[in-house]
Amino acid sequence: MTMLARSRHTPEAVTRPAAGCEAGGLSLAGITKSFGAIKALDDVTLAVEPGEILAVTGPSGAGKSTLCRIIAGLERQDQGVGRFGAEEFTHLAPGRRRVALMFESYALYPHMSVRENVLSPLRAPGGPDRQLDHDGTVMEMLKLLEIDQLADRSPSALSGGQKQRVALARALVQDPRILLLDEPISHLDAKLRHKLRGEIRRRLMRRSTPSIWFTPDGLEALSVGDRVAVIDEGRIEQIGTPEDIWLRPATVGVARLIGDPPMNLIKGHVEVKDGRFLFIRRGMTLPLPPHLVPVARHKVEGRVTLGLRADGVSVVAPGTEGTIPGEIYSHEPFGKHDIVTFSIAGEVRVKIKTRDQSSFRIGDAAALLCPAEGMALFDTETGKALALP
Amino acid sequence: MTTVRFDSVWKRYDGSDLVAVQDLNLACREGEMLALLGPSGCGKSSTLKMAAGLEQVSEGEILFGDRPVSRLSPGERNIAMVFEDYGLYPRLTVRQNISFPLEVRHFTKDEIKKRVDGALELLGLKDMADAGVQGLSGGAQQRVAIGRALVRDPELILFDEPLSHLDGDQKVMLRTEIKHLQKTRGITSILVTHDQTEATAMADRIAVMRHGVLQQVDTPDVLYRRPANVFVANFIGEPPMNLLTAQVAGSTGGIHIDALGETLALGDARKRHLTNLRHGRLIVGARPEHVAIMAPGAVSQANAIVAYREPRGDTDSLVVTPFGSSGIDIRIEMPGPGSFRSGDKVAISLAPENLHLFDTETERNLEIEP
Ligand SMILES: Nc1ncnc2c1ncn2[C@@H]1O[C@H](COP(=O)(O)OP(=O)(O)OP(=O)(O)O)[C@@H](O)[C@H]1O
Ligand SMILES: [Mg+2]
């Protein structure tokens, strides 16, 4: 795990030109933080290049906000250092780090209007040049976020999503050494989220400074990050390109977090019968595809977790050759696709994402077809994807 | 169990001339989960807060069954609420928070234990039962709040963005479980959410609101397949539907799509909807998954360029710009991870049977009788 975290990005990930000499990437080495008995962050090591957007995703309580607060200086790490370029910053006071942070809780000034809230960091001592046309910058940002008509309101007269966008605007108008966005668009509807994901990402790409976008939504992370870091229980589980994370999740924790619905995870073990490698659990025997045989060879009789991607499996007529029998447990039609829950031996539930518009009746007998491409194998003990030793 | 009816309900906030909710007529049936869905600021929470008694009704009446409630305090309404800011007692443990509503109602010790254990189990809170809630993550706090609402078996449960701070699999799991519970216990409930996936997965019907005005209320499936107007069409579905201007071409049911410079034949059955259009203009809607995209080849010439790609796991979400159209982007969804990248020239096309037709002026769906 630590190895994964330490390995920097894959070569094709960052193609943007490096910025001027004063700009520097952010790097964190061995950041550890405990609150009492709880280890909120455990040896977090990562680097974000100038101009790069790193998306950090993880379940609630994984340590995302703690990491954010440590970089901003609102919390002090127990161990480890952070640097901008070669310069260490983790001993500096928050006000001297030039970090722009958008809080998950918004943290707006109640006595200021929306416009003044967004202007406030530009006016702060040490902020950017006071002579510039800040009002223009602010109004342009409010417009982008579709809250320009609220400029003179006070935060108490705003809805939840409006407050969130004020906080986002306040972070985006700044010109910091690193921009940290903690769940910047979680409270908005799909349409606005879709628009802002693209708009904000394109703006951040033009910057010469690094940005980190924290989100509990794994798909959002895939969409906005040049690279994605998945964090769970304070540890970095995987850092990679969006494709890496989706196609080759390094751990059960990563697989569980990404996708709607995420990968199905089924516990069982590997057996060899008549020279064939099988995944076996009660009610279920599945021959392993050729690409998994080399790794399964080292786990014969060992406990493994089978991963089935929801879009990689399908429901077919009962009795079809090479399928797993079971029944339809529930069916949720989403318009462009349906999610069918398939029950095996009354105890395993598999979610299937299908574009096939046939009708599924709850309780009907059916069979599950699992093609090779949608399958992964994890070590149940360690949670890691099986690899050659 | 009960029904909820909003009868010409209006909401104006003091000191604001904005109408937060305008003449709302809407009913939530017995045992139904009704979702209020709409963009930020459209009046969803205001509507829910009026049902809860946390905000005054400016005009109109709200009825639970036959009982007008707009003058009753929240405590007199026998409802439970799950709000986005959790509203837990910060000094109490998880278990104490969940048992609180039962204790003030003098349930027996055994009953309390039974119900609270059930809720802890269901919501995956067993391991933290004796922890203080203050130290919990937002997601865990929300599960405590849901548990506290459920243990009481109230007449009506009001949910305001209950899942907005939960992550991937917890969200998927909890929405299925809430739905299951709501259905098996037949709890009438109203769900406010900005997340259409959540609304679709959980609600029987969805009421779509915009600027305080109800736009359409129907099952998720109908909203998706037969949106009543441009707003609903564009709001429901992610990424949003493409809306393109078009011109009726001749009397044979042909429509010329401006952005693609291409004429499509709608067929005889649908061409009658194209009469009476001002100057023969209309708006055509095409869902991103209904726009076909190919690498240019012998049969299909390049007619657009990929401007932007978002990987979404099993799907790629693309934005393409047709040649010769200024400032018009078309959103496309295709199975992912795919091979198109920004800058690639591609051939895109629309199939007439998947197009939605709207009036340019009224923005209403031309194929739905008003
Ligand atoms: N206390 C208040 N005083 C004045 N105006 C308010 C108040 N609360 C909300 N509003 C306004 O009323 C309108 C409806 O707000 P409401 O909170 O119902 O929106 P919402 O649909 O729940 O939005 P969101 O998804 O962002 O939470 C908005 O324009 C909002 O700015
Ligand atoms: Mg709200």
From TrEMBL, chain B:
* Xref: InterPro entries: AAA+_ATPase, ABC_transporter-like_ATP-bd, ABC_transpr_MalK/UgpC-like, Mo/tungstate-bd_C_term_dom, NA-bd_OB-fold, OB_MalK-like, P-loop_NTPase
A Pfam family per the record: ABC_tran
* Gene Ontology terms: cellular component: ATP-binding cassette (ABC) transporter complex, substrate-binding subunit-containing
Q: Which PROSITE patterns match?
A: ABC_TRANSPORTER_2
* Lineage top rank: taxon: Bacteria
One GO molecular function term of this record is: ATP hydrolysis activity
ABC transporter domain residues are 4-236
Keywords of the record, alphabetical order, are: ATP-binding, Nucleotide-binding, Transport
Q: What family does this chain come from, according to its entry?
A: Belongs to the ABC transporter superfamily.
Matching entries from PANTHER family are given as: MALTODEXTRIN IMPORT ATP-BINDING PROTEIN MSMX (PTHR43875), OSMOPROTECTIVE COMPOUNDS UPTAKE ATP-BINDING PROTEIN GGTA (PTHR43875:SF1)
Protein name in the entry:
Sugar ABC transporter ATP-binding protein
Q: Give the species this sequence originates from.
A: Skermanella stibiiresistens SB22
